[in-house]
Write a structure and sequence with these properties.
Length: 452
């Protein structure tokens, strides 16, 4: 019987292949939606797990998390330096590290921060941490070797950004893989970013009115407007310190400027109440209770404290709604394809009445005819469903790799026992539905079939 089924399928190979492909594509759509949505949930949750608490200026909680955790540039308002100093001095805080952004090297963001973030994200795979202001630590996915030198762009080149002509960093370390957007980031001391944008912290012996020394370079000696004409410009899309750099103090020259980055990193620069502002601060509380108390204390006028996991939960709600819509579209497509294929199969069975009648006339029992028709149809539809799961899984992995590569986040595409249960239920439903055309063949009389 199996040889007869195989020969029959080979004889109608074109139609069989078309049916399998239609079912596979319809099934793959639903599988890709399910696995893709799950990968986004898992990947974003794992990326946010390294950040217990984020403090920023009042505004959008979602944008604060997207900018600080996922390094998506946006024009965030700045927190005053006294907030950073207060958090660093708080006994409930294991560490509080600023996050300053707005500069890029190619498509890799340059993030001003401290060595605490490097340690909090898993530490170094090679090299060393910050010692001087020109030192840079790159993420595991950044294609720059130890010892490489680079000049950052103020904003993206595609958005009209320009090179900081007076700033040059050297790669001294590489972080371990984290599976987060920070794998594609270049970390530098926050003080270097402050100085690059003309907002260095005041040190002993310095006066508030003093400016950094400037070096005029060809084509870059743009004069600042007079004091009565200096106005804040619209914040560029780079956000963070890009917004800070849009303000030019009276008497200062516009960027770029020559900055001395050979001086050692000064941890005390972050503890001064008059330190420059920062777009966000990532906080590591000493305990869960401290985390909730800190969030309550800093959810007030002038600051905003959020748990990234909480914000992601709300985003998951929106994502879940989108998944519901896509799943409904996928189910509708599968139902339409299934109905159309069932109709074609029934017509095909009716057209094979003479063949079925011949089988019956040569002595084949009704049960054998029933089994042949049912097995052929189930083989086609079952192969389509199995192929659809394979295609959907492959498509989900490909999309996760593309999306994860663009955002620097590892999106894990994983099959779970529930997926096997779904596959089993689908095959069971197919087995039941294919009983319809098999029953039609079973009821045919051989004499009537031959006369037709």
């Amino acid at each position: 019987m199996l040889g007869f089924i195989w020969a029959d399928l080979r004889r109608h190979w074109a139609g069989v292949l078309a049916v399998i492909l239609l079912i596979a594509l319809a099934t793959a759509l639903g599988v890709a939606v399910t696995l893709g949505e799950r990968a986004i949930r898992l990947g974003s949750a794992r990326a946010a797990a390294a950040f217990d608490l984020v403090v920023g200026a009042p505004g959008s909680e979602t944008q604060l998390v997207l900018s600080s955790v996922f390094l998506q540039p946006a024009p965030l308002p700045l927190l005053p330096g006294r907030t950073l100093a207060a958090l660093r001095a708080d006994p409930r805080v294991a560490y509080a590290a600023p996050v300053g952004f707005g500069d890029f090297v190619g498509d890799d963001p340059v993030v001003g921060t401290t060595g605490d973030v490097v340690a909090g994200l898993g530490g170094l795979a090679e090299g060393r941490g910050f010692e001087r202001l020109r030192d840079a630590v790159v993420g595991s996915a950044v294609a720059r070797p130890i010892g490489a030198h680079f000049k950052p762009l103020h904003g993206r080149l595609s958005e009209g950004g320009h090179v900081h002509a007076g700033i040059a960093y050297q790669v001294v370390g590489r972080m371990k893989p984290t599976g987060t957007a920070w794998d594609k980031a270049i970390l530098v001391p926050i003080e270097a970013v402050w100085r690059a944008h003309g907002h260095a912290p005041h040190e002993d012996g310095e006066h508030e009115g003093e400016a950094e020394p400037h070096t005029e370079e060809a084509g870059h000696a743009d004069e600042a407007p007079p004091a009565d004409e200096a106005k804040p410009a619209a914040a560029p899309a780079g956000g963070g310190f890009a917004a800070m750099a849009a303000y030019v103090e009276p008497g200062e020259r516009a960027l770029p400027r020559a900055v001395d980055l050979d001086r050692p990193v000064d941890p005390q620069a972050l503890d001064r109440a008059d330190a420059p502002g920062v777009p966000a601060i990532v906080v590591k509380p000493r305990s869960i209770a401290d985390a909730y108390k800190l969030r309550q204390d800093y959810r007030r006028e002038g600051s905003l404290a959020v748990f990234p996991a909480e914000v992601l939960t709300r985003l998951y709600g929106t994502l879940g709604d989108a998944r519901t819509v896509l799943s409904a579209i996928s189910a509708g497509a599968q139902a339409l394809v299934g109905g159309a294929i069932l109709f074609v199969v029934i017509v095909h069975v009716l057209q094979r009445r003479r063949q079925i009648g011949a089988l019956r006339a040569f002595g084949a029992p009704r049960s054998a005819v029933f089994a042949i028709v049912w097995a052929e149809i189930f083989a086609m539809v079952g192969a389509g469903i199995l192929g659809g799961f394979a295609v959907g899984y492959g498509a989900a992995r490909l999309l996760a790799r593309i999306a994860g590569g663009a955002g620097g986040i590892t999106l894990p595409v994983e099959l779970k026992p529930s997926d096997a249960a779904t596959l089993g239920w689908l095959l069971l439903i197919v087995g039941l539905v294919t009983l319809i055309p098999a029953a039609l063949a079973y009821r045919q009389s051989p004499a009537e079939a031959l006369r037709s």
